[in-house]
Amino acid sequence: MMKGSRAVSGLDWLRLGLAVMVARAIAFLVRRLRLGAASVLPGTVARRLQPQILSLLCRQVTGPIVLIAGTNGKTTTSLLLRSLLTHRGWQIVHNAAGANLENGLITALLERTSLVGRLGADCVLLEVDENVLPKVLAPIQPQFILCLNLFRDQLDRYGEVDTISQRWRAAMSDLPSETTVVLNADDPTLSYLGQQLSQRTIFFGLNQPADYLEEIPHAVDSIYCPACGASLDYQGVYLSHLGDFQCPQCGFKKSTPALESQDWPQILIGLYNKYNTLAAVSVAKELQLERGQMLETIANFRAAFGRAEELRVGEKSVRILLSKNPVGMNETIRTVNQVTQDRGQERTLLLVLNDRIPDGTDVSWIWDVDTEKLVQQGGSLVISGDRAYDMALRLQYSQVGQGTGNGERGTGNGEQESNSPLATNHEPLTMNHEPLNINKCQLIVKEELQDAIATALELTPTRETLYILPTYSAMLEVREVLTGRKIL
Ligand SMILES: [Zn+2]
């Protein structure tokens, strides 16, 4: 079945065939020469040769195309949705985590495209960057757009969250009226966006006041009504700015979720994943999945978690957990703590903090992360990245903040105790090779990423897992090192 109304000429298809052939050759070479995972470059080249490629490939998809956007949870949600949809027996295309810009989307589709440009897919799930979403709606013509949340970590990249939602709205309003937009009702910006669209909308959200945060965070004082600009009233907050809210001035309020959240179990742990679960279920339900099948998949999802992100290195496993903002990193810490509970001192983590453009150039967000919970559980923490020392400092303060460090802190070199965590260690962080023991946590700073990975792998016991917590650009680098020829 061909979708879309624009006439496609024979020449268009010819150029598509050429683009596919070249892209496939590039992917083959990149992998053969072990230069990386080839998750973006083939798409970049193919788009040069056939600028219409995204549209030409997407119109061949026989079943639904689902786009998944939002600051946090794209990968988890799409992995769950993919697991749910395997019940339909479909051939599903899904882009690799992180390859969510236009060329990454094209590359994912090319993986399933024959040399004459025929795409073999019944269903396409694409994680899409917030800023790229408006540009790809017209060529892709998705049946579903899943909008998870908009957190402020993108402020320094793209400007106000409101600007993004306005761009989304403008692009979405050009889509056919049967396009279904699934939105998080608990996020004021997205609730409002949904209320403005003439397309079909479905909301998901929580209805469980027992899970409200004990106190309403001060930060929500600055959450303004998207309709009139007044400060929103929150009855309760579940997480960050997500909660039950209404505007005292114009009557705008949270949209009504279609599912009763209390009727559904969730994957993994953390309220955050409750949102991810409800989001995936909302789409799966539209695609005629039965409740029984969904419950079974949700219950078994643990095994699949992070599958896309798990790599084997000899007899050890490496699990990469993107940690790019406070909400995401808190969730990662909670998860790692849970799965390593019984390892204690044996566990090894590698934290990689970069401050490049895709990460947001301001790293002060790490001071909003509950790193205290990370150091509490001990183990070896290897630290790397452009801003390795900022992260090391954060972790040192976390240890001091425990209140358990007094009297035990230090490496036995007789330094004076002081209230300042900096004063207690004389230039400890400039010593690259001397591990710094803070209570039961061993902090090791390695500026060079390859060096850091090698050290962390060495510290990881055989048959155990190394957990890597990188920012976005750091994640790409880590993958490159691990899958490329650099050290392995
Ligand atoms: Zn208002």
Structure description:
The chain folds into 2 domains: 10-299, Mur-like, catalytic domain (UDP-N-acetylmuramoyl-L-alanine:D-glutamate ligase), CATH 3.40.1190.10; 307-402 and 427-483, Protein-Tyrosine Phosphatase, Chain A. Helices cover 37% and strands 15% of the residues. Helix 13 links the parallel strand 11 and strand 12 (379-384). The longest helix has 23 residues, at 10-32. With 488 residues, the chain is an alpha/beta fold. The strands form 3 sheets. The protein has a 7-stranded mixed β-sheet with strand order 9-10-15-11-12-14-13, sandwiched between helices. A 6-stranded parallel β-sheet has the order 2-3-1-4-5-6, sandwiched between helices. The chain contains 16 helices and 15 strands. The chain starts with 9 loop residues before the first helix and ends in a 5-residue tail after the last helix. Helix 4 packs across helix 10 (271-286) and helix 8 runs parallel beside helix 9. The site of zinc ion has 8 residues, from loops.
